[in-house]
């Protein structure tokens, strides 16, 4: 299939999807997962991540070895949803990940140009 045909299909079928990346406290992953499942979101990926944010790092020394106590374990969720579900998914992640303290995380939303299931060749919403 030519690149032109793929581009034309993407423009027709897949422009109504968004990729959501959420960086949350690892301790809130189960709450967020349950919230997403309650609104019908059953597929997403997650991984452990680390980074630097607004919280001030504090260092302690234990047996002569310095440890940075300021980093809170984080988990990165990645999911793709149709535009119609976007606001609901953001609300669920926000409500279930919020502690009210610095370091609750971030949500990033980007447009999706294509989404394909490798095994079957399905595209767009069918591939989720």
Beta-strand proportion: 25-35%
Q: How many strand elements?
A: 6
* Helix fraction bin: 25-40%
In DSSP terms (H or I, runs of 4 or more residues), the helix count works out at 3
Mean pLDDT: 85
Order of helices and strands: HEHEEEEHE
The global form is elongated
User: Cα-atom Rg, whole angstroms?
Assistant: 19 Å
Q: Structural class of the helices, strands and pairings?
A: alpha+beta
Read across the widest sheet, the strand sequence of neighbours is: 2-5-1-6
Runs in which pLDDT lies below 50 for 5 or more consecutive residues are none
| N-to-C CA distance | 22 Å
Tell me about the biggest sheet? 4 strands, antiparallel
Characterization of this structure:
The chain contains 3 helices and 6 strands, in the order H-E-H-E-E-E-E-H-E. It has 128 residues and is an alpha+beta fold. A 4-stranded antiparallel β-sheet has the order 2-5-1-6, with helices on one face. A hairpin with a 2-residue loop joins strand 3 and strand 4 (65-68).
List descriptors.
128 residues, 4-stranded antiparallel β-sheet, alpha+beta, two-stranded antiparallel ribbon, 3 helices, single chain
Tell me the layout of helices and strands.
Blueprint: H1 3-13, E1 17-25, H2 29-38, E2 45-49, E3 59-62, E4 65-68, E5 74-82, H3 83-97, E6 105-111
Antiparallel strand pairs: 1-5, 1-6, 2-5, 3-4
State the gist of this model.
The chain is an alpha+beta fold and 128 residues long.
